[in-house]
Amino acid sequence: MIRYDETAIVTCVDNNKVVTAEVLNFIPKKTLSVSLERSVKLMLKYSEKNDEYQGDLYGRTFVSKGPKGKEYVTGRGI
To answer: What is the DSSP string of 56-76?
Structure first.
């Protein structure tokens, strides 16, 4: 089982501004939905070519590698 962080690093390509955004919804290798500064919702779609999530908002392009994940073992370990 993989558990993902509740935040992700998002970069604005146009001005190189980097922010830590709250993850609202995440489907690995599909979509990433984040909240920028608790006021703007941003949807990013996975780009297999670049191995990152990309999206546009207000004429600016945003990218993210997504939230970091940690693998957990559940049940009894033998």
So the answer is: EETTEEEEE----EEE---S-
Indicate the pTM of the whole model: 0.87
Map out the domains of the chain as residue ranges: 2-70
Instruction: Report the C-alpha gap between 33 and 46 in whole angstroms.
Output: 11
User: What DSSP character marks residue 6?
Assistant: S
d(CA 32, CA 28): 8
pLDDT digits (tens, 9 = 90+) for 42-61: 999 999 999 999 999 999 99
Q: Which long-range contacts (CB under 8 A, 24 or more apart) does 25-32 make?
A: 26/66, 26/67, 28/4, 28/66, 28/69, 32/8, 32/64, 32/66, 32/67
The token duo for 76 is: 């009894």
